[in-house]
């Protein structure tokens, strides 16, 4: 979420501490999906891509809803999120 908020217009650069936390989180994800001796189940690239895509969309929605809440009504923001989520499920 930090990097998404940063690249959107009006975003702030993340601190070194936040960048370190993100790097550790990405390393943790890499460890979980590496498929080495820690886990006996096979890992499919499509499943990993779907999970990472889901996390990206969730983070984008969180950042955008926070920005939209400052300008609109909470009911409108919730309706927009539900409509966009439903549209993604149709694809």
Please tell me the total number of domains: 1
Which class of secondary structure composition applies to the elements?
Answer: mainly alpha
**SSE pattern, N- to C-terminal:** HHHH
Distance between the termini: 24 Å
Average pLDDT score: 76
The biggest sheet amounts to: none
Oligomer state equals single chain
The tally of strands reads: 0
Show unreliable segments: none
Tertiary shape: flat
Please give the count of helices.
4
Query: Level of helix content?
Result: over 70%
Percent strand equals under 5%
The rounded Rg comes to: 17 Å
Task: Put the structure in a nutshell.
This protein has 91 residues and is mainly alpha-helical.
Give me the secondary-structure topology.
Elements: H1 2-7, H2 16-33, H3 45-69, H4 74-90
Helix pairs in contact: 3-4
């Amino acid at each position: 979420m930090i990097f998404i908020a940063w690249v959107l217009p009006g975003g702030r650069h993340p601190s070194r501490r936040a960048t370190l936390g993100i790097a550790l989180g990405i390393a943790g994800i890499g460890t979980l999906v590496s498929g080495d001796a820690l886990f006996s189940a096979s890992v499919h690239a499509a499943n990993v891509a779907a999970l990472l895509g889901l996390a990206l969309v969730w983070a984008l929605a969180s950042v955008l809803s926070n920005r939209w809440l400052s300008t609109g009504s909470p009911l409108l923001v919730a309706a927009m999120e539900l409509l966009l989520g439903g549209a993604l499920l149709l694809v």
